[in-house]
Amino acid sequence: MPRAASAVLLLLTSSPALAAVEVAHMVISGTRFEAPVDTQPFSVERIDLGDARQGHPGIDLSEALQGVPGLSVQQRHNLAQEPQLSIRGFGARSAFGIRGVKLLSDGIPASIPDGQGQASSFDLDTLDHIEVLRGPSASVYGSNSGGVIQLFSRDGTGDPRLLAGSTFGRWGTRRHHVGVESGTDWGGLVFNQSSLDLDGFRHHSSARVDKRFAKLTVTPADRRLALIYSDLQQDDTQDPQGLDWAAYRRDPRSNSANTLLYNTRKSVDQQQVGINYQQDLWTAQWQTTLYGGKRRVVQFLSIPRAVQQASATQAGGVVDFERDYYGLHSRWIQPWLVGPGELILTGGLDYDVSVDDRQGYENFVGDLLGVRGSLRRDERDEIRSLAPYLQLAWHGEQLNVQVGLRHNEVAFEVDDHYVVAGNGDDSGAVTYRELTPSVGAGYALPFGLTAYAGWSKGFETPTLGELAYSGEDGRFGFGLRPATSEQHELGLRAALPGHGRLQAAWFNIRTDNELVVAAASGGRTAYQNAAQTRRRGFEIGLEQPLGDYLQARLAYTWLDARYSKRFSSQGQVVASDNRLPGIAEHSFSATLAWQPRDDVELGLEAAARSAMEVHDLNRDRAAPGYALFSSYAQFEQRHRAWILRETLRIDNLAGREYIGSVIIGDGNARYYEPGAGRTWYAGLSLEYRFGED
């Protein structure tokens, strides 16, 4: 553990000022039942709407997740790819999408059963708060849950109000949104529509994104029903792809030749509907979520024509699939008053299904590149997950204990319709089953302190893409096993004077059977269970008012992530003690906000990260560390029923060149995704509240 972090923790926990503290209670529901943060025996962060804005334009989820200890957010400046999110190293290896971290929005999964998730459909304008669970407590959410990120939208409340806003910024950024909200004692309504256009910092990175969100709540007596609809349309978003080191040094805004030749791009069309139902029954509560949706993706890659022509097993350079997904999550929560405390039993069942009608095509016709060509892949992919679970929580005056057990069953089935000479039938099926226990205990100490400890076992299934070609002769990989992990956590939470909060945690994670690349040829990548890894670290988060007008927020993470066993990958030996790529050892963020009045806020932000390896071998140039500074200003004026708000934000004040994210193990050594230079945003929003004239 770094000496500086230890010294900060010792200073705060030994301060006599902690003797008289007024605790600011903050409630979370990520435990599946509402409970105050300060009583929970695990690491959790709640980000409220006001904390998430700070002049951000609302382009993607990464804006709202900065400054959470243990959570790494790498900005790709590429809307054709999902933001890179990882929690304590889980998810860092994801080649596309978000993996290893469970994503939920209003209780509806944004991750399919194999662990791949998408955050691009989330509507940030209607966001109320976010909860980030880290460590052993996440295992109760099932496979591929190294951490959990839950989004909660607002319920419509109060008299009707109309909202509209626009944001403009550098790199051709233009974003507009309109909405309406209203509510009574019987329920509420929220509706929002937004559109985003940008040219992008990188060449060949323009995007157009349209979103719609609607939520209707009905709350009679002891029941609550919420109907939720979302719609995402994203047509021909350009993909600038990564750069090799020499190209990055020449021009960070440039692209590789094939990026332009094949016009790499992605289109997404997604609609989703969900129902949340909650009812109080005697002393218990029943909660159920039903959801279903459809997602269509067409993506043009830059796989060269010669590579596709050289092998009959090559799946082509155009990905085209239509996904139907649906599920049911239901649980019963039963509390009892037992002696000096409360015992809460939660029993539930999660059932999720994803069905893909998937095709692959060549990305050329004759000499014409970047167009849909001949069929090279045609299959039906189905993934089902069934998971009953139990949680038992004891809340006493000083002692809090939580125990969880979940039985996970994840089944994959592929029906291959593309069987030609040289490309056999890749149909197959496999089912994974695993029990994942967890336990945590917290104890309230004097002076507003709470100490906690946790332990869990977890597992991570291969994704469908990893299974597809990992068997003998490139067939379906029946023999791949899930990676299994064991986590330990020790933490301390403190309530500081003036509604300040401190949370610090040490963790240790051991993972067996990590999936690594076994071979890559003919446009197909095969995986193997070969690696053992260890991750240990320390994280600390601090929020503290400094007088009447200043608020400071700090977050620091030290994460030592290494392979603990040597293995062979693509004919080369990866040594024991090599660092895991895509994970920075040190990361730090800080915000200082000055709010002299309710209608004025000025802020200064800092973010720093150490170097990151880009390949398992640790031989290629690591992405250098960096330190960036940003500033923002927010103003508000009220006149009767009208509220006018102005925002100004400048990112990367010094205009520094840096690597924003990396593409791990890229076969062409194009690992580096440059971050944007100095970038400004200016926003104006107007709100009208009926009944306040």
UniProtKB/TrEMBL annotation:
Keyword field contains Ribonucleoprotein: no
Domain of life (superkingdom): Bacteria
Signal peptide region: 1-19
Pfam families, alphabetized: Plug, TonB_dep_Rec_b-barrel
Residue span(s) of domain TonB-dependent receptor plug: 39-147
GO MF annotations, alphabetized: siderophore uptake transmembrane transporter activity
Gene3D superfamilies given in the database record: TonB-dependent receptor, beta-barrel domain, TonB-dependent receptor, plug domain
Membrane topology: Multi-pass membrane protein
Localization: Cell outer membrane
One example of a Gene Ontology biological process annotation: siderophore transmembrane transport
Residue span(s) of domain TonB-dependent receptor-like beta-barrel: 229-653
Keyword annotations from UniProtKB, A to Z: Cell outer membrane, Membrane, Signal, TonB box, Transmembrane, Transmembrane beta strand, Transport
Main location: membrane
Example of a GO cellular component annotation carried by this entry: cell outer membrane
Family label: Belongs to the TonB-dependent receptor family.
Name the UniProt record assigns to this protein: Iron complex outermembrane recepter protein
Taxon lineage: Bacteria, Pseudomonadati, Pseudomonadota, Gammaproteobacteria, Pseudomonadales
